[in-house]
């Protein structure tokens, strides 16, 4: 039995004692602390924390969840971390979130379905349980695919709307994908869906300095929810979103972005398209449109949501520029192949 200190980002420390062979995540959960997690078997990377001291073993995870570079930097997956001495880790979430973040199943009904492009679809889920769901802008849920034992993870692309108790999501349309096929061919307004969550430590923190938001593809979703939250509360710090896609047709929710940012003097956005055949004014990758003014000599917080190659490219870009942001929050995702 070993003791672990969980140091949360709001300055609170909680001490948990592990049982023999127990993972840190399970020990925390047994003690009433929900370290952000999803899969529990080293596949998703949601429970990623930073080791501060102590010895441990960590086996059974995949590189998509935790890369060799992250291991060298002291990152750990608490769902695979078993202590060999007393330890301390930094948890990239507030203590309040980890205490209150009940991960449970709720039921809602499909309120709206929209085909935004050949590659992207949006849907909304409404209901009393959705209205009372306690999530932070940026977090995600697992949506159960009807008549299967499968589920798919989607970030909220909106807050719960007061007029209809509905929250929205974006889906990348995957050929023959279970959820893609269901939404495109079978789903009807009023159909029931089951959600599990909320999950994730990728959520909007208090804005204390300039913010740079970087979105790739349907990684735009959490930023739409964040911008709704910022619009409601206001900000005195500059915020810039760069939204990157592969093809012109992949650009979605541009009108919503315009509406969200047009009334906020401090908030701006730009969009770029990687394809050389694009007719969009800004071409190339997100990193090609990050200016020195956006980086503010490192005095900024960066939020990044996109596929793994994008996360790696941004990290490399920051290293090449010798910029270390005050905070770098990221969530990488890959669309299911089925």
TrEMBL record:
Name its co-factor(s): [2Fe-2S] cluster
Molecular function terms, GO-annotated: 2 iron, 2 sulfur cluster binding; ferredoxin-NAD+ reductase activity
- Domain called FAD-binding FR-type: residue spans: 103-205
Q: Can the keyword Oxidoreductase be found in this entry's annotation?
A: yes
> Which residues are in the 2Fe-2S ferredoxin-type domain?
2-95
Q: Which Pfam families match?
A: FAD_binding_6, Fer2, NAD_binding_1
Q: PROSITE patterns this protein is in? A: 2FE2S_FER_1, 2FE2S_FER_2, FAD_FR
Cite the EC number: 1.18.1.3
Instruction: Give the top-level enzyme category.
Output: oxidoreductase
This protein's UniProt keywords: Oxidoreductase
Protein name according to UniProt? Ferredoxin--NAD(+) reductase
Q: What species is given as this protein's source? A: Marinomonas mediterranea (strain ATCC 700492 / JCM 21426 / NBRC 103028 / MMB-1)
